[in-house]
Specification:
- The complex is a heterodimer of chains A (292) and B (65).
- With 292 residues, chain A is mainly α.
- Chain A is built from eleven helices and one strand; from the N terminus they run ααααααβααααα.
- Chain A is globular.
- In chain A, 42% of the residues are buried.
- Chain B is mainly α and 65 residues long.
- Chain B is built from four helices and one strand; from the N terminus they run αβααα.
- Helix content of chain B is 69%, strand content 3%.
- Chain B has a domain of 31 residues.
- Chain B: It comes from Rugamonas rubra.
């Protein structure tokens, strides 16, 4: 067999390992993760319906201008609730979201009367959506394989930089490192959430997620590979920084689904991702050596 | 460690230019490709992509909504 170019070797390794481990992940996911998501969605839909009914009534009874609606809401909230600022923030955030999703403006007033809105509406997104069942599983598989190939590219790139081919057994450690960097560390601040869970603004969470991944990758690399202690200690500091800063949190912690369901989702995803990363690591090590 | 003992070292001592050509550049290109793939599967705000990858995003612990 002729020697392949380094880039070619990385890509071939990532595609082979990513395809197989992505399928493993999809299998595990449809057995123990997806059922929890579907269950959580029933709670979420029920809560959304319960909130939409009074909203629709209010919209029929008293259609309002946008500006008037917001002004009235602020006045009502300030009048009725002592913690006016927090409620205004939550209510106006929901109002914007609701307006974008095509709700009547009157709905916000009705929701404010019903009490503080405590969760994020995960599935008020419009547009195309895969049907539950085979179609949804197929697109999940596609997404999983894309992510797996991407993670495989990063693992193979790291192996290339190290210049060492361990074979599958030694590469289990690379997989464990990937699990720590891309799942464990971010999950400490932002645990995997079932749909219908209150959360801080998406942009802030994505930034924290990315910074945590970068800091954990850099910190682990220094800790494991740096030749001298001061650098290793700097690595430990890098591991800790994101958690000392803290992940963005919602104003109110709440979920449409029961706490037990949210808890079992964390266990299910922790297990599925552990198996996935060990599989991706081992397969990457195997193919990286094979495609030399 | 036994793992390292059985490891095969690809490049023992290589000049700097060949290190860049054989290691750094391929690793950089591969990482760029990985970022593009991850963005599409896990971070894209596009409605259809979000809905298609929804369960994968939640399962992997990516911030989703």
């Amino acid at each position: 067999m002729t020697k392949t170019s380094p880039f070619n070797r990385i890509v071939r390794t990532a595609v082979a390992a990513g395809l197989l481990s992505g399928l493993v992940l999809t299998g595990l996911q449809s057995l123990q993760v997806a059922p929890i998501i579907l269950q959580a969605e029933t709670y979420e839909d029920a809560q959304a319906k319960a909130e939409l009914k009074p909203a629709a009534d209010a919209a029929i009874a008293a259609p309002q201008q946008h500006a008037d609606g917001v002004q009235e809401l602020k006045a009502e909230v300030a009048h009725e609730h002592p913690a006016a600022e927090a409620h205004e923030h939550v209510a106006s955030a929901v109002h914007e979201h609701g307006a974008a999703a095509g709700h009547a403006h009157g709905s916000v007033g009705a929701q404010a009367h019903a009490g503080p809105v405590e969760h994020e509406h995960g599935h008020e997104h419009g547009g195309w959506k895969p049907e539950n069942g085979a179609e949804r599983t197929f697109f999940s598989a596609l997404a999983n394989i894309s992510m797996a190939v991407a993670f495989g590219l990063l693992l193979s790139a790291a192996m290339t930089l190290r210049g060492v081919s361990h074979g599958w057994r030694g590469a289990l450690l690379w997989g464990a490192a990937g699990y720590a960097v891309f799942f464990l560390a971010p999950s400490l601040g932002l645990p995997p959430e079932v749909p219908g869970t209150a959360a801080a603004p998406l942009g802030a969470r994505q930034v924290w997620w990315l910074l945590t991944v970068a800091a954990t990758a850099g910190g682990l690399a220094l800790l494991a590979l740096a030749p001298r202690w001061p650098l290793k200690l700097a690595g430990v500091a890098m591991l800790l920084v994101p958690h000392l800063v803290g992940a963005p949190q919602p104003l109110v912690h709440a979920s449409a689904a029961p706490a037990e369901l949210a808890q079992s989702f964390i266990y299910a995803t922790a297990f599925a991702n552990a198996v996935f990363w060990l599989a991706l690591g081992a397969l990457s090590g195997f193919f990286f050596k094979k495609f030399n | 460690m036994s793992i390292h003992a059985s490891a095969v070292v690809d490049h023992t001592s290589a000049p700097a230019t060949s290190v860049a050509k054989d290691k750094v550049l391929p690793a950089l290109f591969a990482s760029a490709l990985a970022v593009a793939l991850l963005y599409g599967a896990a971070f894209s705000p596009m409605e259809a992509l979000h809905n298609a990858a929804h369960d994968g995003r939640h399962s992997a612990g990516f911030p989703c909504h």
